[in-house]
Amino acid sequence: MPRRATGPVVDIQRARRGAADDGSRQEQPSGSESRGASVILTVIHVLRCFTTEEPLQGVTEIAAKVGLHKSSVSRLLATLEQEEIVERDDASRKFRLGLGLISVAGPLLANLDVRRVCLPSLQSLSSSTGETAALVVWSGAEAVTVEQVASAQQVKHTNPLGTRYGTALSASVQVFLAELPTETARAQLEGGMPGPPEGVDVQVFLDRLAGCARRGYAVNYGETSAEEVGIAAAVRDHRGEVVAAVLLAAPLYRIRETQVPELGAACVAAAAAISSRLGAPNGRAPQAAPTS
Predict the structure, then answer these.
(1) Partner residues linked to 144 by β-bridges
(2) CA gap 190, 185 in Å, rounded
(3) Residue 22's Cα: distance from chain center in Å?
(4) What is the pLDDT of residue 216?
């Protein structure tokens, strides 16, 4: 999480004075180099306006903090929004940090405190199943990997942190879609965010999502890749809302279809353990439904 900026206007002014002072002692940078450094510095100060205490920021607030004109801040935020570095809050229309930062900062995620919440459960799931366990979050249209414990086996399925799953058949995407109100999920599928599987009627896929919700986990058995199996279950916070999903990933040749219910139950148990640490109601995520 970016740190709170302390006196950003003063910092910018000092940086400009420092650049001028350095110029008297060493070779003066070219105009393009100077402008590029200034833009980078400005972007950093804008991002540091977003803090844990004040996660939502408006254009006027940011402009006052960084000492820039509102039109300049507005253009900068528009560019950052296109790259998903920031996103708009639907209720206030203010900005907050976006999940695009995860793709940039993926290698650093191992040092974040959130890792301590999910890591023991992911390690246990990977150890008990022999497969790769990961934690993914929802961007609104894609599932994004934020933590992962790789299988100890030589042949395994892994992805870099920041990897995005954007197809409706992905197990993690199914989990998040299944938690949406039916009409919201329908609108997203019909709008292609993500679209339904090719040749599959939207209502048929919605029925599949309803089954995922009842069962407690979603399955992608070689549907997006003939060589991979994915099983995912929802993680809930203290409000009972889905905030992430546990994803179990494995090579398809090693997983028989008859094993899926057992692995699904293990995935649900891991999600429940993480949910409990997050203060989920009753201390648990939904349990996997018994299979016949």
Answers:
(1) 137, 164
(2) 9
(3) 41
(4) 96
Q: Could you tell me if 229 and 221 are in contact, meaning their C-beta atoms sit under 8 angstroms apart? A: yes
The pTM score is 0.62
With bands split at pLDDT 50, 70 and 90, how would you rate the model's confidence at 51? confident
Per-residue pLDDT, averaged over 47-73, amounts to 92
Q: Residues 167, 193: contact at Cβ < 8 Å?
A: no
CA dist 70 → 54, 60, 73, 74, 77 (Å) = 19, 6, 5, 6, 10
Residue 134's CB is within 10 A of a number of other CB atoms, namely 28
Q: Distance between CA atoms of 45 and 9, rounded to whole angstroms?
A: 9
Task: Quote the CA–CA distance of 159 and 169 in Å, as a whole number.
Answer: 17
φ, ψ for residue 121, nearest 5 deg = -70, -40
Structure tokens at 22: 């350095």
| Residues comprising the chain, all counted | 292
Q: What percent of the chain has pLDDT over 90?
A: 57
- 3-state class of 86 per DSSP? strand
Q: What is the mean pLDDT of residues 72-96?
A: 93
Domains and CATH numbers, the chain: 8-98 (1.10.10.10), 102-283 (3.30.450.40)
- Comparing CA positions, the residue from 194, 78, 218, 219 lying closest to residue 140 is 194
- Cα–Cα dist 81/97, whole Å: 9
Q: Which is nearest to 177 in space by CA: 163, 162, 158, 191?
A: 191
Pairing between β-strand 242-251 and β-strand 86-88 as defined by DSSP bridges: unpaired
Task: In whole angstroms, give the CA distance from residue 48 to residue 57.
Answer: 11
Residue type, 239: R
Q: Judge contact between 128 and 172, C-beta under 8 A.
A: no
* Contact criterion met (CB below 8 Å) for 138 and 164: no
